[in-house]
Structure formats: C-alpha cells, structure tokens
Specification:
This protein is mostly helical. The protein has helices at about 1-5, 45-50, 65-95, 95-110, 110-120, 125-140, 150, 165-170, 205-225, 230-235, 240-255, 265-270; strands at about 175-180, 185. It has twelve helices and two strands, in the order ααααααααββαααα. It is globular and about 50 Å long. InterPro entries: MlaA.
Length: about 280
C-alpha cells in the first residue's frame, strides 16, 4: 500500500494543485515562508475557456462525472477549508525555514532514482544523467540530501518523471478521470506509478514513512497555491476548469507532442495563470 502512497506526490487535496506545474516545470525552489515554487500550466486558453463554460458537454475522460462532482463538493467545500488548508498553512508558517528546506531537499532526493530510470525510458538521456548526478552528490556530500549540493554545483533540478508519464509518452491513454474523496484527482494511467516504488531508496520506506513523505510534500504544495484560489472562485465551473488543467498537466508530464501552438493563446494563458513565484 505504501507504494501507491509514495507515487502520489501531491497533497490530500490536489485539486487546487492542478493549477500549477509544481513538478512539471520546476527549478530548485527558493526557500521562503510560504513554500512557494515556480509554476506553469500547459493547457491552452481555448480549453480553459471551455472549462469555464457552465453545463459543458460531458468530457470523454470523465465517464463518472456525477460521482466526481459530488466528491469535488466534499473536498472543495468541506475538507480543504476546514482541514487541509489551515494545517498546511500552519506547517509552512510556523516551521523554521532552514528545517523546511532541509526536509524538502531530503524528500525530493528520494525521487531522483526513479526519475532517472523513467527519463531514460523516455529517451531523455541528458536529463537522466542529471538525476543520477544529483542523487549521488546530494546523498553523499549533501548529507543524505538535506543539502542541495548538486544545485550549487550547477546541476539543474529537474522535474520528477513517474512511470505513468513514460507510458503516456509512448501512447498509453490517460484513462478515466476520477475525483477521490479526501485525495483529489487522478487518472487511471497513474496507477502504473506503483512501479516507481520498487526502486531504492523509496522501496525501503515503511507505510508510515511513505505517508509522512506524502503529507509533508502535500502541505508544502497546498500552501503555495493559496494565491491561485481566486482563479477557482471566479470560475463559473471550478470543477470543469480543474479537470481540464489537470488532464493537460498529464500530457505535459508525459511530453506528449501537442498541436501547433498559438502564440496569442499561450500569452492569454500566461496572463490567466500568472503567479509571482521566484
């Protein structure tokens, strides 16, 4: 069971995190009291506009929409405002910054081996080498990853790649979109991410260690999207908007070739989801 927990690097309420590519386009995160990280999104403006249209036609990836909307209400109206959000902000605001940074570095270092393998499978040899070098440097000179020596050495911090991303890269469909109670959105293809839990050091984690990793990373990421909440609040259909952006994020992570990019649409999207992260 801990393999599945480990593979989901998101908070209990990841439906808000769908708005930022906290892992998709990240560089080394700056240490700050809010736990903010760079964010981007790859959905086109036309898809965002369609998602903002109430009573839109049923989505081909959302066969369980009635159930999903009920779970959205549970998560968005009750669990997040009364549990996940206050707990996350308390952790970020009251934990000393050096401690938070060290823990964040340590947890991210655990993901480097499977990211190396999955990038190699996807044909990203240079990126795979970066993951390899980051792992051995940070695990040794960086005191098990608590200090990000690799970044100081000029090795770029890369976004993690999971096995489901590799499958998507080679044409495996996303499958059904499902909103889980007290968890957030997933697609069926993400079930394959359990494979990543077979690689050390992740494979050595107990259930509770995996749960702690998931919870700590989730609190950091939930706190960083607080400025994005207005986007959902102003949307006529927050559920549909979240779904569209989340599905686009899956394509981005899988490096799926997209259609020709419209520069005006991309500029619109940048303005729509622009965040002032470092």
């Amino acid at each position: 069971m801990h393999l599945a927990l480990y593979g989901r690097n998101r908070s209990i309420f990841t439906l808000l995190i769908s708005f930022v590519f906290v892992t998709g386009c990240s560089s080394a995160p700056a240490d700050n009291p809010s736990g903010e990280e760079p964010s981007r999104n790859s959905a086109s403006s036309s898809e965002v506009a369609q998602a903002n249209t109430p009573q839109a036609e049923s989505h081909p990836n959302d066969p369980f929409e009635s159930f999903n909307r009920a779970m959205w209400t549970l998560n968005y109206d009750y669990l997040d405002p009364y549990l996940v959000r206050p707990v996350s902000l308390a952790y970020v605001n009251y934990t000393p910054d050096p401690l938070r940074l060290g823990v964040r570095n340590f947890l991210a270092n655990l993901d480097e081996p499977f990211s190396m393998v999955n990038n190699a499978v996807m044909g990203n040899g240079g990126v795979a080498l970066d993951h390899f070098n980051r792992f051995w440097l940070n695990s040794t000179l960086g005191l098990l990853g608590f200090i990000d020596i690799a970044t100081y050495a000029g090795i770029e911090k890369r976004s993690k790649k999971e096995f489901g991303d590799a499958l998507g890269h080679y044409g495996t469909g996303k499958g059904a979109y499902i909103m889980l109670p007290a968890y957030g959105p997933i697609v069926v293809r993400e079930g394959a991410d359990f494979v990543d839990g077979l690689y050390p050091p992740i494979s050595y984690l107990s259930f509770w260690a995996s749960f702690g990793k998931w919870a700590l990373e989730g609190m950091e990421k939930r706190a960083l999207v607080v400025p994005q909440e207005v986007t959902l609040e102003n949307s006529p259909d927050p559920y549909a908007l979240t779904r569209e952006v989340y599905l686009q994020r899956q394509d981005y992570n899988a490096e799926v070739a997209s259609e020709e990019i419209d520069a005006d649409e991309e500029a619109y999207l940048d303005e729509y989801l622009e965040e002032g992260f470092d």
